[in-house]
Design a protein that fits this description.
- By secondary structure, this protein is of the alpha+beta class.
- 47% of the residues lie in helices and 21% in strands.
- It contains 26 helices and 23 strands.
- A hairpin with a 5-residue loop joins strand 15 and strand 16.
- Helix 6 (108-135) packs antiparallel against helix 7 (140-155), helix 6 runs parallel beside helix 11 and helix 11 packs antiparallel against helix 12.
- The protein is elongated and about 180 Å long.
Length: 801
């Protein structure tokens, strides 16, 4: 074939590679671009066979198309990747006389753009899937598992995993792990994936967490254990002492021999959240690195939000538990409402939280701020001083049990239940009250009492979330229950006071009602030991009084009968029947012994009366107010009650009581409740020493601590604190146990033996009832010391309350 000079000139000026092949596949013409593509000169290639010079083209689409056009004629267009030049080519072949003419155009740039577009599409689809899933309130583990599944699906990776950092324990916890069906078993069985927990040492994941820097396109052998020492990376190795990759092992046939790794730290405000990692048998493009980095940043925000949501729910549960505990342990409505507004304000971080009472007087509806908590004192004063007619609207909303939510008074939400005039009036009212945002949740009790919790923001606007509204609704339900129980308590108390004027049988019923009242105030099913003792003393006192009161009459009757018998004996001295009966019954002995018997019965009755008095002194149920009492007498009465448990039994020695009583003045207190504290602590001490060897001792010490600034009051009575220490030499407790010792329902005793309420009630009696302190110090193996400190003269305002 002869090539014209004109053809050669035209082809030489084009940027495409052009060459001709004859029917024996020999080069007969090629331009300069073709020599660049083949990497050979014209002299080296002209008249040489294509397949002999470039055998790497055999068994490719180039060979099949070249031969087809050479045989069948015509033209062909196709695109293919060429190992010659390592580029993508657009190929055009046409049949000519004596051979074929081939045009090759480099389209690598276009292919790169197409690949980038496809990669962006995959990343966009991945981010969209993850974002749509994370919008919904799924659990953290579920969300992260979905993310790793999506990464494997969209990026065709071998393994994707997410570790979350536990800042308290300082370790990484894996909460997302996915792999495809072609991932090799040696990689899946790596120590890196066997445990869900990783320390920050000896792993590539821990290194990323420590440095908070990403590792991009790290390539290492695909087989072996990523935690074995002596491992090396094929590309971009770390320091020699970093044992974070895998051992070099002979690669199984047909399996990939290289593994590409990319890992990103999830960091938010310089705070480590976790690590996102991807392993792939194929090289990853730079766009993938950027996409994974963005995904890591997005996940850090989402994980932090999930933690915040979990913390909010935990605080919500804690708040509800505290309110429910207040309801169980106290029927003081003021305490419950005051606790509620303070807890809500602190939890939601609002400027002001108030409780509003709503009632009607004729046709007038009134509102009153009963409890408030805010950044400023008297934050509810504006509502309290507002003219009643301006508050009518708010009272109507409470009466209709309608929730009122306003995020910003400058941009009020639609209020379909109001006309435009009333809506504007409400905004004017809130503006005058200096309220920027308001959330009002009404409540209604079973007795139709109305109220509301109102949270307001004064220093800026506030968007009220659905979680906050749900929390406040739960609190409102608890408050409605508290009010109902307080009313029930008031009714029970009124019935008890009325019943005190009735007969003895009704009085017994009143005692039962009083015990029920004490159960409502203190615990759900905890009966007061003092009340039980008072009931027993009362039951004993009735028959003893009956016996003691009738002994004098019995003595008189006996004396009269004796005088009668003496008279019979005087006037009937010779009656044979009477004489025989006298001898039979030994009348002289009876006349002599009967008065002594009656005297013994009188002494026994008096002894029982003294015991009853001692029991009543322990319980002090007849003292509803604070009175000065002898603390030592209360301790001795408690020890008397527990005397049977202190005695030796079987092979267990007696528990020795050591008394180190100081000089204590009379202490103003609730004696019955204080005795109950002594009973709870001493009974626990006896339980703790039940299986302990000798010596088993309980030491009771008291002392008076005078007030250094005011040692006496105006009447010359001493001022200061009474200090009582109750110490045992039992097994002691761990610091963890001591930290929970006063928590309600916490107990170290076996199931069925303890309720966990004794020390919680004791804490309430000392701290809340007497404004004192109670502490517990214990060392395992060295025993336990309970220290009680209460003022001997409470403050005047506390005594009044």
């Amino acid at each position: 074939m002869i090539v014209s000079v004109m053809d050669g000139t035209v082809f030489e000026n084009t940027s495409d590679a052009v060459f001709r092949l004859d029917e024996q596949w020999r080069f007969v013409m090629l331009n300069g671009a073709a020599t660049v593509l083949f990497g050979r000169s014209q002299a080296d290639l002209l008249h040489h066979n294509l397949w002999e010079e470039f055998p790497q083209l055999l068994a490719t689409s180039f060979e099949s198309e070249y031969r087809r056009i050479m045989t069948q004629g015509g033209m062909s267009h196709f695109e293919a990747f060429s190992v010659l030049g390592h580029c993508w080519l657009h190929v055009q072949i046409q049949r000519e006389n004596g051979g074929i003419l081939v045009f090759l155009r480099d389209i690598s740039d276009r292919k790169q753009v197409e690949a980038d577009v496809m990669e962006q599409s995959r990343l966009g689809h991945l981010m969209g899937r993850v974002s749509r899933f994370l919008v919904h309130a799924h659990g953290l583990a579920e969300s992260l598992q979905y993310c790793t599944d999506a990464i494997i699906d969209e990026l065709d990776g071998a393994i994707a995993a997410i570790w979350v950092y536990n800042s308290q324990a300082q370790y990484l916890e894996r909460q997302g792990f996915s792999y495809n069906g072609e991932t090799s078993e040696p990689l899946l069985s790596s120590l890196l994936f066997q445990s869900p927990v990783l320390t920050l040492e000896h792993s590539i994941i821990g290194m990323i967490a420590q440095t908070q820097k990403p590792v991009v396109d790290l390539v290492f052998p695909a087989f072996g254990d990523p935690l074995q020492s002596g491992a090396v990376a094929v590309h971009r190795p770390l320091q020699d002492n970093d044992s974070v990759f895998c051992n070099l092992e002979p690669a199984p046939g047909k399996l990939p021999t290289k593994l590409h790794f990319v890992g990103y730290p999830m960091v938010l405000d310089e705070r480590l959240i976790g690590v996102l990692a991807l392993w792939s048998y194929q090289a990853l493009r730079p766009l993938v690195y950027e996409g994974l980095g963005s995904l890591a940043d997005s996940l850090a925000i989402d994980i932090d939000r999930c933690w915040a949501r979990t913390a909010l729910l935990s605080r919500r549960e804690a708040l509800l538990f505290r309110l429910a505990n207040q309801i169980r342990n106290s029927l003081d409505l003021n305490t419950i409402l005051d606790t509620a507004v303070h807890e809500i304000r602190q939890l939601l971080n609002v400027d002001c939280c108030t409780y509003l009472w709503c009632w009607t007087e004729g046709e007038m509806v009134s509102l009153m701020v009963s409890h408030e908590a805010g950044v400023e004192t008297n934050c509810g004063q504006a509502i309290a001083t507002c003219p009643p007619e301006r508050l009518t609207f708010l009272a109507e909303q409470i009466g209709q049990q309608r929730l009122l939510r306003i995020d910003d008074i400058q941009h009020p939400p639609p209020l379909p239940f109001l006309n435009s005039k009333d809506a504007q009036g409400l905004m004017d009212l809130l503006r005058d009250l200096e309220i920027q945002s308001l959330l009002l949740l009404p409540l209604k009790t079973r007795s139709d009492h109305l109220g509301a919790i109102a949270c307001s923001q004064r220093r800026g606007v506030r968007h009220w979330s659905e979680q906050e509204i749900e929390l406040l609704q739960a609190v409102v339900d608890q408050l409605a229950l508290a009010i109902d129980q307080a009313e029930l308590f008031a009714q029970t108390r009124a019935a008890a006071l009325a019943a005190q004027t009735q007969a003895q049988q009704i009085e017994l019923t009143l005692q039962e009602l009083k015990r029920t009242q004490a159960q409502l105030i203190q615990t759900e099913k905890m009966s007061s030991l003092g009340q039980m003792i008072a009931g027993i003393a009362h039951e004993i006192n009735n028959p003893v009084n009956f016996i003691s009161g009738n002994l004098s009459y019995t003595s008189e009757y006996v004396n009269d009968l004796v005088r009668l018998v003496e008279t019979y004996r005087q006037y009937l001295p010779d009656n044979e029947k009477l004489s025989e009966l006298e001898d039979e019954i030994d009348l002289d002995f009876i006349i002599e012994d009967l008065p002594k018997t009656l005297a013994s019965m009188q002494i026994g009755a008096e002894r029982i009366r003294q015991i009853v008095l001692s029991l009543r002194n322990f319980s002090r149920l007849d003292q509803a107010e604070m009175k000065p009492v002898d603390i030592h007498e209360g301790l001795d009465n408690t020890l008397l009650i527990l005397h049977n448990r202190l005695k030796a039994k079987g092979n267990r020695a007696e528990i020795e009581i050591i008394k180190n009583y100081g000089d204590l003045p009379p202490v103003d207190c609730y004696a019955g409740q204080l005795n109950q504290v002594f009973m709870n602590i001493l009974a626990n001490a006896i339980d703790a020493m039940e299986d302990e060897p000798e010596p088993r001792q309980i030491t009771i010490s008291t002392e008076f601590m005078p007030d250094p600034e005011h040692p006496e009051n105006g009447d010359g009575e001493p001022l200061g604190d009474a200090l009582i220490r109750l110490q045992d030499n039992g097994s002691g407790m761990s610091p963890e146990t001591v930290s929970h010792i006063f928590d309600p329902f916490f107990t170290t005793k076996p199931v069925g033996k303890g309720t966990g309420l004794g020390l919680a009630i004791s804490y309430q009696i000392i701290v809340e009832k007497h404004h004192g302190r109670i502490t517990c110090d214990s060392v395992p193996g060295s025993g336990t010391i309970f220290t009680i400190q209460i003022p001997v003269q409470p403050a005047a305002d506390f005594r009044k309350s």
